[in-house]
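Whiteboard transcription, Tuesday session. T.W. wrote the structure tokens on the left side:
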């Protein structure tokens, strides 16, 4: 008895463009597992300029999407069935916003060649002693 179910394939590396083109040309994207498609879309959407080359944001979004797959009655679970790419992009955008918020919490100081920290000038402080004296 022949099985009609398609077997899933392991996807190539996300940087192997020739292999992806070959899969797309042969209509092979349907044979890839959805979680691999999620990772591919997340890697396209989330920049490597974020903390840990964007991997923290990618993993955060991927975790939420996998929970959505495991809970098909959740809002994200329904959203994945209705508009897969839009829901993945939505979660990627959420992860980007969280990453930007996390990054803005910290003050980044420059360092000298000796490794000493150079604090930025206080923009609220007056430039000259005369300005302070005239206010008194």
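and on the right, the sequence the group agreed on:
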């Amino acid at each position: 008895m022949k099985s009609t179910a398609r077997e899933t394939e392991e996807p190539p590396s996300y940087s192997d463009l020739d292999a992806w083109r070959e899969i797309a040309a042969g209509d092979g994207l349907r044979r890839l597992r959805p979680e691999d498609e999620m990772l591919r879309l997340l890697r396209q959407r989330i920049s490597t300029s974020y903390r840990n080359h964007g991997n923290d944001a990618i993993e955060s979004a991927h975790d939420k999407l996998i929970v959505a797959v495991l809970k098909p009655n959740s809002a994200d679970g329904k959203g994945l069935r209705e508009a897969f790419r839009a829901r993945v992009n939505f979660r990627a955008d959420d992860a980007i916003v969280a990453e930007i918020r996390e990054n803005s919490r910290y003050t980044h100081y420059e360092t000298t060649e000796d490794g000493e920290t150079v604090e930025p000038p206080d923009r609220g402080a007056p430039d000259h002693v005369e300005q302070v004296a005239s206010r008194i």
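Someone added at the bottom: Residues 1-5 have pLDDT under 50 and may be disordered.
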